[in-house]
Structure formats: structure tokens, C-alpha cells
Amino acid sequence: MVDRGRKPSAIPVSPLAPTPQVSMSDDNSRVIATLPSGDRAEILLYGATIISWRGGNGKENLFLSEKAVLDGSKPVRGGVPLVFPVFGPPPPNHATSSLPQHGFARNTKWEYLGKTSSESSSTSSSGDSSVKLDFGLSDPMLDAKTKAAWDHKFNVTYSITLSPGQLGTSMLVRNTAETAWEFKVLFHTYFKINDITKTQVTGLESTPYIDKVAPSAGATKGAAQSAISFSSETDRVYAKTDGSTNRIEENGEATLEIVRDGLGDVVVWNPWSEKAAGMSDFAPKDGWKEMICVEAGSVSGWIALESGDTWEGGQTMRAL
Questions:
Q1: 34: which strand partners?
Q2: Helix H segments across the chain?
Q3: Which residues fall within 8 angstroms of residue 221, CB to CB, at 6 or more apart?
Q4: pLDDT tens-digit map of 119-157
Q5: Is the pLDDT score of 10 beyond 80?
Q6: What CA dihedral angle connects 68, 71, 75 and 77, to 10 degrees?
Q7: In 3-state terms, what secondary structure has residue 298?
């Protein structure tokens, strides 16, 4: 036997890089996505409502009422409910007039279409750094009552992209009917904060707004020329805003950023104590101190969609 003094060295095997994990809950009611970084999002199929978004440090970025109903019997109080195809109470003598407030997207069960993982060039050695979850809703999925109230053919794809430190939401709306129809859309995002009295929203200083709180409900007010601060109930619609970025600041330090794409309007809302007390699904009753809604959308006018056409808009939310 020939003695081989030199044996070939073993070829090193690189360990598999971590990848995003996506799973369904045991009752198949929600989708949970987790990144190797620890970032996590949870989406209820009812309304395709995001009910949790945590950063890699474990911090929750969304407010969810302790009494939020998650069994599919009513829209979720908190998270990111979807408003479509009408915003607020439907106007009379309009195609949406028989629909419930804010439409049907938030109180209809969506279909989970699947996931797509992607890799950032700067973090490729650590595996896939983001995951996109797609959800679908189309006219055949609506119940008979809703179809009777809004008899149009459509297809909506809602994409939620979880990346380290950020969450993106985008909606692609297609008119599959032979005639045109119109709609409004809004991401009704509830952000979790520490103290509303020490919170400001920036990026809307030069935009006039519609005040929806009595006694000036419905009145258009001039641009404030300063960041929005809070000392009472606030419900404002900022239309055709200058710029596309808004920030939430606490004690003068930016904590969250919202960048809009194809969405020119912003709704800013906090119910304050009296209105929160009148909501059966709002808890704790002083939870209004720890939430602010900064809602990206297109609600100041109707979006007309011709047969076969599509519309797309979205937002990217970043924890700073």
C-alpha cells in the first residue's frame, strides 16, 4: 500500500444562511412573517389587516386595541385597516351609497396568495433580508349583500413587504369590468406612541386641511405653517400635500417615518378621551394617549378607473 503523505483537505461547507419564515396560525386566520433580524409582522386574513409590526428590537410599532375584535365579525380597531372603495360615510346618490362606512375591504376575508423573499446586496451574506406577502380580493369573493350594494368587477392585490426596520404596504387595483367605476383608498394606520401630548407630526406644515371636528366640521383651514401637535380630538384631511414624507416625533425626536408613493392625501386622527370612551372596542380607555393615526391615501377626490386599467399606490413606514 502506498503511503500518501499528503491527504486532500476537506472542502468547507458553508452553513445555510437564515431566511425569512412565514407561517399560518393554527386556525388559519392569520399570516405571520419573521425575518432573521427579528423583525416580525402579523396579518389577519379578515380585512388583510396588519395587527402587529415589531422591529428587530422587539418594539411594537402599531397600536391595537385590547378589545379589538379579531374573529371576523367586525373591522379591527387598530393595526392597519384597509379603506376601499369609499372613505368615511358613503355620499348619497353615488355608486357607493349603499356600502358601509369605509367600504368593504376591511370587513371581508382576503386570500393569501403567497410570499416572495429578496436579498439586499449589503446583507447578502446573512441571507434574505426581506419578504413580500401578497393578498388578493376580487368581486367573486364578496357576499351577496355587498355585491348588491356595489356591483362592479374588480381585482385587488395587496402587498406587504417586511424589511429590517421598515414595513411597506401597496395596493394594485384593476378594473375587470367592461365599464368604468371610481373609488377611494386609504391605509388607516394606527401608530403606537408613548404620549400624544408630547407628539408632533411633521411634513404637512404648508398644506391646508379639512377639519372634521365640531364645531368647524367640514371647514377648510389654512396651512398651519408648523408641525401638528395634539391637545384635543383631532380629525383632519390634508389633501394634495406638498412632499411625500411625514414623520412622527416624540419629545422633538423623530421615531417613525411614512413615505408615500402615488398617494397625495393624509388623514391625521386621534379620538381623545370622550370619543374613545364611546367606542365599545377601544381599550384601555386611556389608550388614546398612546396612539396616533397618520393615514396615507387618496380620499379628497374619486379615482376613475377605466375598463382594463390599473391603479397602484403605497407607503413605506420606517422605525427610526
A1: 21, 40
A2: 144-149, 272-277
A3: 208, 209, 210, 211
A4: 654 444 445 699 999 999 999 999 999 999 999 999 999
A5: no
A6: 10
A7: strand
* CA 4 centroid distance within chain: 66
Catalytic site positions = 188, 295
**Cell 386641511, located at residue:** 209
pLDDT band at 196 (very low <50, low <70, confident <90, very high): very high
Q: Please, what is the average pLDDT of the chain?
A: 94
Cα 40 from Cα 35, distance rounded (Å): 6
CA 208 to CA 239: how far, in whole Å?
Answer: 7
Distances (CA, A) of 310 to 94, 272, 307: 21, 38, 9
Residues 44-55: tens digit of each pLDDT: 999 999 999 999
Contact indicator for 81, 43 with CB cutoff of 8 Å: no
> What letter would DSSP give residue 79?
S
N residues, the chain: 320
